[in-house]
Amino acid sequence: MATQINDVEWASYSVSGQKLADVAASISQLPEAGQTTWPATFDYQADANGILTSATVTVRRVVTLPKWDGYSSASQAAKNEWDRFSAALSAHETGHSDLVVQNLQSLDQQMVGHSVSDARQIFNAALQTLKAASDAYDQQTNHGQNTGTVIDTSVDATTSNASDPNSVDGTTSNSSEPSSADQTTSNASDPNSVDGTTSNSPEPSSVDQTTSNTSDPNSADQTTSNVSDPNSPQP
DSSP readout, the chain? Predict the structure, then answer.
């Protein structure tokens, strides 16, 4: 008799784009940026009266995160921003994973001593309670945005301007003529030494990263001793 909650299984899906703005746009079209699921099953033994004498609950935890296909060819600044975003999203999903342990760790004990039908209801109710806790966690954290699950696409503009031969400190100069205020009698001033520069950096684009933890608490009744939740999400 035990509840076995397995170690987290890490999975990924690919997103394409040469720049962070492209990647952010791709992710924004998806239902979620990251996802945590908890497929669960239980086995049991019952006495002649159909009362459970033991139960074993097995729960998988699967966390799926995005993987940027263009990461290797991106600028260092873009890589740094993607790494920061990925770490924030991973930490948020770990919070969902921790809720699985908190809510299901003693589920087998709750099922013992009940009929098979009642034990199944206890099992499904526990999954429903976990789903509610996961939804509340998303509400509290704004789906992780409060802790950094937003891609700062302004890094693209900074990287682009840094390679502009007419830029000063990463910003683009709109002047191609030397400033008369800086010219000496010999007119030997640097034509690129312009005091007033304008930045072409756009405002950061926020992409809502939502996380849905979908475990179906309403699994169909099972008549065998190896009962699984058929509607539990798979990786």
Answer: -EEEEEEEEEEEEEE--SSHHHHHHHHHTSS-SEEEE--EEEEEEE-TTSBEEEEEEEEEEEEEEEEETTGGGS-HHHHHHHHHHHHHHHHHHHHHHHHHHHHHTTHHHHHTTSBHHHHHHHHHHHHHHHHHHHHHHHHHHTTTGGGT-S--THHHHHHHHHT-TTEETTEE----S--GGG--TT----TT--S--B--PPPPPP----EE----S-PPP--SSEEE-TTSPP-
